[in-house]
Please model this.
Amino acid sequence: MSEPIHIQLNGKDREVSSDLSVRDLIVSLDLAPEMIVVERNRAILRRDDYADVSVEDGDVIELVHFVGGG
Amino acid sequence: MSEPIHIQLNGKDREVSSDLSVRDLIVSLDLAPEMIVVERNRAILRRDDYADVSVEDGDVIELVHFVGGG
Amino acid sequence: MSEPIHIQLNGKDREVSSDLSVRDLIVSLDLAPEMIVVERNRAILRRDDYADVSVEDGDVIELVHFVGGG
Amino acid sequence: MSEPIHIQLNGKDREVSSDLSVRDLIVSLDLAPEMIVVERNRAILRRDDYADVSVEDGDVIELVHFVGGG
Amino acid sequence: MTSTERADALVVGERTFASRLLVGTGKYASNDVMVDAIRASGAECVTVSVRRVDLDRSREEAILHHLDPEEFFLLPNTAGCYTADEAVRYARLGRASGFTDFVKLEVIGDQETLLPDPQATIEAARVLADDGFKVMAYTNDDLVTALRLEDAGCAAVMPLASPIGSGLGIVNPHFIRQIKRRLAVPVIVDAGIGTASDACFAMEQGVDGVLLNSAIAGADDPVRMAEAMRLAVDAGRASWRAGRMPARGIAVPSSPERGMLA
Amino acid sequence: MTSTERADALVVGERTFASRLLVGTGKYASNDVMVDAIRASGAECVTVSVRRVDLDRSREEAILHHLDPEEFFLLPNTAGCYTADEAVRYARLGRASGFTDFVKLEVIGDQETLLPDPQATIEAARVLADDGFKVMAYTNDDLVTALRLEDAGCAAVMPLASPIGSGLGIVNPHFIRQIKRRLAVPVIVDAGIGTASDACFAMEQGVDGVLLNSAIAGADDPVRMAEAMRLAVDAGRASWRAGRMPARGIAVPSSPERGMLA
Amino acid sequence: MTSTERADALVVGERTFASRLLVGTGKYASNDVMVDAIRASGAECVTVSVRRVDLDRSREEAILHHLDPEEFFLLPNTAGCYTADEAVRYARLGRASGFTDFVKLEVIGDQETLLPDPQATIEAARVLADDGFKVMAYTNDDLVTALRLEDAGCAAVMPLASPIGSGLGIVNPHFIRQIKRRLAVPVIVDAGIGTASDACFAMEQGVDGVLLNSAIAGADDPVRMAEAMRLAVDAGRASWRAGRMPARGIAVPSSPERGMLA
Amino acid sequence: MTSTERADALVVGERTFASRLLVGTGKYASNDVMVDAIRASGAECVTVSVRRVDLDRSREEAILHHLDPEEFFLLPNTAGCYTADEAVRYARLGRASGFTDFVKLEVIGDQETLLPDPQATIEAARVLADDGFKVMAYTNDDLVTALRLEDAGCAAVMPLASPIGSGLGIVNPHFIRQIKRRLAVPVIVDAGIGTASDACFAMEQGVDGVLLNSAIAGADDPVRMAEAMRLAVDAGRASWRAGRMPARGIAVPSSPERGMLA
Model:
């Protein structure tokens, strides 16, 4: 089994397993990938790439979505 | 044939024949009795009475109706 | 000594001695006659008459003056 | 006598004699130097220098002053 | 009307009206435009004036040739009257037409401004109410006069927004609100409305209805303005019932302040 | 939309919108009320904010659980951003959602009043327009800033009526009219509308649309207020198109002066 | 007064007043503040109320202990009266004080709003004018009532700016201007002034004077506000006499457009 | 100035001014009227424009032939400039006159409305402040722009009441109050004042001064209007310092309710 890695996720440090794709990360959080936009190290990912991009140690990841606003 | 009589009709002197009912007067003016209210010598006539009330010499008659207004 | 009489003074029953002029009444209340207007039984008294008009039993007397107002 | 030179004065071409100081120019126009500010070739002159600076051929000179304004 | 609409309908003198907008019939460029505009306005109650038949050219004038009293509720007014007696006379002539015992009472006190005469209006209202009329009284925006008109037996009290035909809208909303708050009978803003937002704003003061004429007849496109007025009165009524947010001198964000990115 | 309505529809950045009323989705007591209110408003264009997923309680927040992007046009905003860079970042995140390349650009210049930063808004607008965005820019009521935003390539310019959430309505109609008169792109009044008559009045200034949020969400009955706003915007638009009567300091009778009895 | 000032002085009932500002004497925190404020206001005409001597604590109340009738013109009012008869009674008591045959007539028609009763005021005015009083009648802002008061023989007509003690200023300047334009007797705005700009604005409508009380007595610093009111009334009068520039929706430069550098 | 007046005097850039009223010198019918009006206004600070000498008819134009710089503080403006560079150039020419290092900075952004260019004004302000000028910056009524101007080093920030020469008065008092509340440097309302009550009202918002030109020069009688403005600014200042009574929708009697007769 792989070593855990450390990422910053939505502003908080978090330990995750090292073999996750971004898609895996989203699903593991019980979120729907088609409703989430991902910024990884200040670059926005295309949704089609979620499954192909792996989460790396030290990544700063922002998962954002639409909320109510005026 | 009867003598003409003089009435004041809607503010103007007018000569009419002496044997007219109010209804006759209205019809003679090419007006529809059901759309006209009649004031005779400052008293309002009931519409049902138009045929029975005769126009008398010296009558002051006002024929009024509804026009546009705010 | 005279009997006391009863008057209504500024809305309250009051017992006063029977030999008072209106002027006496005012002065007895520690008021300045030249600053007071007197209404006695709904008639306004002239100020020159205060000394000559005597207070009678049953009189309804209003002593009024100027107060602050807008 | 000196050759005339050509300057642009307050937006208009003008021929003046070649030996004028800025002060001379102002006075020749019947203006009071202490009420005039001079911009010569986009540089503002100090009033004390008006007598010392000579008007050169090709100079672009603006004589400005205060007028009414809000 | 749907049942919801009926539940919030305007009721004056026990009669229910299909719309809170009431309109006049004066000053239209043509009778066709008038009819189209009134239909577009959705108004049921339509004011008319009582006038001598013009014996030379009566056909065009007679409003009954153009407005079907089955389709519209014709409300005779006493416009043009300057004394209580005169207004009573006109009111009775209007009633004798046989359509209604409602009257829009109007007693003018000043020819230049067309402002109503408070005292004469109160007098006429008392006479007419005692005579069985349902009096809808045009008045200024004075609360005390409005209270006296209610006491006199009026079925509705109709304060002005601003002078007749001025189009200035509600100049004194304080006074209009006071009148609405203090009277039990319906309060209808009558005269001075100039545009749709004026009508909407009037309804937002809580009044029961709006009566207007010039704002439609004097618009460049009366039929479209009539539709605007219908919408505006409905908007203002719904807005008043909905209970507006408080106005405040400060800003309050409408998007969440938390959840910002680092 | 009927064909008449379509002919007068709001078009921004070549997209036609079903309503001239645009609404926000913030500050509702519940998602159910929000959805009911938005439906009652008739708005097609609905603003949303871009925020971090709250990893503890995300379900309730995600607006896509409540608003179907097939039914509504979701317009991401950059609310909460204080610099041009930050706003550009949020705009790109919003676009990456895959729904639209429109953005409601908002760069705040002062935390207390939530007034926009003119310079930073112009900068961000230029960057975003160059990047292919259809920028709808929230701005103050200054004509010069509005002209600069148009020059920067904005698809719509959205001046405030008054500060966000204040409910004061249009404080300076002169400035709003100037902006509308001078710009070629659509002008939408955004922020400060408090009640239906404010929205109606805004449309009567000739602007192309109204965007509001607190006025509905903060009403006692949001669904009814949403309906009021729908009617008020339609009323104001129709009124502006109809061409109002002139307002004047004098009275003009609406009933005929001739034909009075002797 | 200088001769210029005298030439533009307020004249009511043939008496010339040193100032166009008239002030009340009610609601002051202390008599000393009242006297200082009235002196600072520059007012000569000062209203007082007629009340029963309070036999327990009369000394402090009696205004004549504080205001010298040689220095000020004391104008008795009929405040607190609700019928014409009552007001006539109070007016006569006020006259019996021996200072003046002027009276500020006030007949209230509604306890909550303190709005005047138009009909009762007209009746009382007629009785008092016939009895030789110089009647200065407090009234609402209705032109027709104002005309009737003039007809009844009033020496001055005093329409309200807004309700007594409200401080809302002139809510309906149209009505105030109409009254001034149509009456021959002096028109003095009475009640509702809240601050100095209200008084200045009132005078700019062309009226002959301003009567106020709460705006001074209710200010944090009454003496300074009194001075402000004195200045504001003078400013408004001078402004009206000077003839203001037209207001216009367009900009006009105040600095020359020619003479710019290349 | 008395010592009291001095204690409340306007101070800009460490210089004390004898009056809170500042006036322009444009658009007068004659120089004599200008001088008389300025004297009547009591203003010490008087704005002037920098223009090319008109070599044909300079005598009449030169303001220094009419205004003694010992009597008045001449404040050069940059009116007519449309870019930051141009304004900097004019400011330096003005300073080179030798009277002052103060400048009224004005960078216009739109020829039709004469509204200022916020961005260019901020840029020019920074350059000039860094160069030692005491910059008094004309700006719109936007708080964020005002804050940036303060940051840029302005000695005073001068928001408009309404467009130059419009005479509309303060259209948005909310914005003016926000600016005054948030800035540390003096805030002077500049442009748009039309009449004395406008100036009085401006001062009541708490601002430090008022600058105007057309309202005096465009009045029928400029000298009298100048006096009105002097009084109005003093009135407004005193009123603001005195602390006005609260405005309220209800009536409050100013005469005692007790002590009525039976």
Observations:
- Strands of chain A lie at 4-9, 12-17, 37-40, 43-44, 60-68.
